[in-house]
Amino acid sequence: MKIIFISLDTLRAKRLGSYGYRLPTSPYIDHIASQGALFESAYASDIPTEVAHTSIFTGNVGLTTGVVSHGSPSTYLPKEYDWLPAILRKAGYTTAAVDNMYNLKEWFARGYQYYMNSVGKTRWIDGQAINKLAKPWIKEHKDEDFFLFLHYWDPHTPYLPPKEYIPSFYDSNKDPYDPTNKSMEPAFNHPSYPFFKYHHYDLLGKITDVNYVNALYDAEIRYLDDLLKDLDEFLYNEGIQEDTLLVLFGDHGESLTEHDIYWDHCGLYEETVHIPVIIRWPGHIPAGVRISNLVQHVDIMPTILESLGLETPKNIDGKSLWPLIRGDQVEHHKEIYLSECAWQAARGIRTDRFKYIETYDSGPFTRPPVELYDLIKDPNEENNLVDLYPKQVEGYRNKLNNWVQSKLDHREDPMERVIMQEGLPFRKRIEKVLSEYSLSWDDWKENPRRERIDFAVRIQ
What we know:
15 strands; 16 helices; eight-stranded mixed β-sheet
């Protein structure tokens, strides 16, 4: 048997046709979904990339492992935690990855017999590079039982899809560089600008139309969709498609200007924490299964292990999705606990109706300390109900605090350590850029005009 485990980095669930999107971003992903099970309400409990994938491969949320912050220099995953590739290798599976997260933290290479680092000459990774590494490996090992992890980054900034993919999502009669269009000004004059100037905006040229940037994101998904089609057709031609358990998941989504977040994956809002999860296994999972129950990243690991008849580690946070797939269980999780510590530091709770968020450090953003949203009446999370429902707020506050304390079990809170001792990782990145222009964080945040950076660049 073969397992191909695919991370679709920065893929927002609601940008896929199978999750209700009206534009043609994902015809082949939708086809795969129609052949297996799609989880409509899947969530990333820990964001962004580093902490999300740690949860996925351990079956534990960040507060259990202590890995809650993306980019924290002190974060370390102790080796006693069970790690999915290591479990499978011990069980006799050939394990391999086409990935680059080893460059973030060493534990992402644990358990693999073959680790093909996808890093190239640029910061961004084209999915063609993933397929070029994966397909020869698959061909060589197709007669073995294997676990192959593939990490695609194509929907991630800086949004550089092949040009032929753009017209499907942006009117070719429009000029994305029209100087009279001022829709990009809020992004250009945001406190996060020093970081994104170099990692995003400068690579796109002098774009003035915010809708064009969103169209580039859609085009990236469409390009990724073709790459997955190419991979799946290769599996078919090699005769192993029917013997392959295929798992597609997003590590987190992407905010496309919502909530003052310009093309990034922070904030515990639906755009970022609602993720796609799709599982296809011919002959084992019926076609067209759609599951509405709340599920989360940590549920994927025990699902894989149950599929293979392997013992699930005791006391992990995740629960196998198989009861939901079989239709013999109604409730899975009553709520999902959410966490981030990179651009911002916040925790929250997502129930089938409400979203509760506590922000401890808002970084370059302006956030209320507490937010409460009715997701049925207000799916875009625009109307904060804190003042209207004080009893519910108090109930959620107590629930969140009790959960945190139960997970810590008298240990130091790793998020508190990052905030108090290290500082938010992405604030430190911005401060490093600002220091080149003799600007302090407080001075910049008080007056984040792009000219203060751009003018300094021009006169250097």
